[in-house]
Amino acid sequence: MMKPITLYSNSREETETLATRFAQTLRGGEIVFLRGPIGAGKTVFVKGVARALGLKSSPTSASFSLMKAYRSKKHCLFHIDLFRLEANEVFNLGFEEMLEDEHAIILAEWPDPISQMLPQDRLEMDFILKQVDRREIVCTAHGPVSAARLEELCQTIPA
User: Fold this and answer.
1) Handedness of CA 7, 53, 75, 55 (dihedral sign)
2) pLDDT tens for residues 15-35?
3) Domain coordinates of the chain in residue numbers?
4) Which of 46, 123, 126, 147 has its CA 20 to 30 A from that of 110?
């Protein structure tokens, strides 16, 4: 596990810019856990990633559909939102298919119910509300793929 890195956002636009920079590091095969309270910017971040990947559909909160797939010729983004589910309620949601696609990018909001089902190499992003629009996003990489993506992201952020 890499030492956590804290990123900052002062607006929706800055969160989208951060998501765009992050999307530029993605190659497929990444799993990202997004945690934080409602309104912390998790879905804004997912939308920014999707837009930067050139996906035509824009993700919405997946709370009522649990998992949505967004595909283009180059990318497949799975957006998972398990807000109200318990671990014993997440079987038979199609995770096996999602994990078989080595080029898929998995962004999971409220991921705790599936954390033991997914590979251990993952990036965890904890969105912490500070004041009004200010957020701290604490990023922790677990595994070499996630560590590489986080390092690449940090290189794109102005000092």
Assistant:
1) positive
2) 999 999 999 999 999 999 999
3) 5-156
4) 147
